[in-house]
């Protein structure tokens, strides 16, 4: 299978090593129409870990009525056993009820999810930004009290479908309120995929000034306008070292009008390995995993790199007949 040409350059300003926060099993599968059985989800997560992904978000303890795709969260974790509940296997938790379920499954890390805009807070959480912070407060208090690691997602950091542009000061304020609860890591979500590179650097600067340095910030880009990888590389050359991405680009069907696919982990790994940045990921094992999952979902993977390299794998398995 072809590998990216190794061509490191000091002038890119990229870090020597990047931590990939893999979201395919949660953010990816929760946005797919096809509901995957728990055993298949567990197999997917095992294969992601085996491919070298150290941080894998496994599932979500939101109300199953909201996200039926992940209603089997406890079952998936039970199938995985201790491998699924290590400290680098966070689960999404919206409220104390979700935390109770997560604790019953013995998780050691959770992620809460706030919004940078009032409209999305109302639509996604059914309450204002201030009210949602109060909903998260006891969740984070209890999680930290139990020794858990806690991540805070902020959605709509670079634009909102109802409110349009989102002022940087508003994003910083929303992030500050969540981090003040005691969270360990902040993930900046470009939920509708409209960010461009200058905006990314300006937000990172503003967060740093407000006491949220790049060392505790992760970036989460969507590829709606084809900018996810460019924005990610801009953040990495600006001092960020943690990137959210989704194996195969899961989460957002390429044929749907509302497609807002996650950055594909394979596309990210191809770019980083070519630039001499270590990720610890075995690209071929990851491509095989995403090609397999695409088969489970009955559609091609959204990742360009999976599309290109899976063709290589097919050719290895089924050589062309001699003419
Ligand atoms: Mg996403």
Provide a descriptive summary of the structure in words:
The chain has 323 residues and is α/β, with parallel strands linked by helices. It has a domain of 225 residues: TIM Barrel. Helices cover 42% and strands 11% of the residues. It has a nine-stranded parallel sheet, sandwiched between helices. The longest helix is centred in the middle third of the chain and has 17 residues. The radius of gyration is 19 Å and the shape is globular. The structure holds magnesium ion.
Gross geometry: globular
Instruction: Report low-confidence residues grouped into runs of 5 or more.
Output: none
Helix and strand content put the structural class at alpha/beta
* Fourth-tier CATH superfamily name of the domain at 16-230 and 252-261: Aldolase class I
The CATH topology annotation of the domain at 16-230 and 252-261 reads as TIM Barrel
Major beta sheet, strand line-up: 2-1-9-8-7-6-5-4-3
Helix content: 40-55%
Number of helices: 12
Q: How much is the average pLDDT?
A: 94
Major β-sheet profile: 9 strands, parallel
CATH class of the domain at 16-230 and 252-261: Alpha Beta
Termini separation: 23 Å
Give me the strand/helix succession. Answer: EHHEEHEHEHHEHEHEHEHHH
User: Which ligands does the model contain, each kind named once?
Assistant: magnesium ion
Strand tally is: 9
CATH architecture of the domain at 16-230 and 252-261: Alpha-Beta Barrel
Short key terms for the protein model shown above:
single chain, 323 residues, alpha/beta, TIM Barrel, nine-stranded parallel beta sheet, 9 strands, 42% helix, 11% strand, binds magnesium ion
């Amino acid at each position: 299978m072809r590998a990216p040409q190794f061509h490191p350059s000091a002038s890119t300003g990229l870090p020597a090593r990047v931590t990939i926060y893999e979201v395919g099993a949660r953010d990816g599968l929760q946005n797919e129409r096809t509901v995957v059985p728990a055993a298949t989800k567990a197999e997917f997560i095992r294969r992601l870990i085996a491919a070298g992904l150290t941080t894998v978000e496994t599932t979500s303890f939101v109300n199953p009525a909201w996200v039926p795709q992940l209603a089997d969260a406890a079952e998936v974790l039970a199938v995985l056993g201790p491998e699924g509940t290590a400290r680098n296997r966070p689960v999404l938790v919206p409220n104390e009820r979700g935390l109770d379920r997560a604790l019953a499954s013995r998780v050691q890390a959770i992620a809460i999810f706030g919004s940078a805009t009032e409209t999305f807070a109302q639509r996604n959480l059914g309450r204002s930004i201030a009210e949602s912070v109060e909903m998260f407060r006891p969740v984070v208090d209890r999680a930290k009290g139990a020794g858990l690691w806690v991540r805070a997602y902020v959605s709509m950091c670079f634009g909102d479908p109802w409110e349009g542009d989102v002022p940087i000061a508003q994003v910083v304020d929303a992030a500050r309120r969540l981090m003040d609860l005691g969270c360990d890591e902040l993930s900046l979500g470009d939920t509708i995929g409209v960010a461009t590179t200058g905006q990314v650097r300006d937000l990172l600067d503003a967060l740093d000034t407000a006491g949220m340095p790049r060392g505790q910030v992760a970036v989460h880009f969507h590829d709606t306008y084809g900018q996810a990888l460019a924005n990610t590389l801009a953040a990495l050359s600006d001092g960020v070292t943690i990137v959210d991405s989704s194996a195969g680009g899961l989460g957002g069907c390429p044929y749907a009008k509302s497609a807002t696919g996650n950055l594909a982990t394979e596309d990210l790994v191809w770019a980083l390995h070519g630039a001499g940045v270590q990720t610890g990921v075995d690209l071929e094992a990851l491509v095989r995993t995403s090609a397999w999952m695409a088969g489970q979902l009955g559609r091609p993977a959204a990742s360009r790199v999976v599309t290109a390299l899976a063709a290589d794998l097919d050719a290895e398995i089924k050589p062309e007949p001699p003419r």
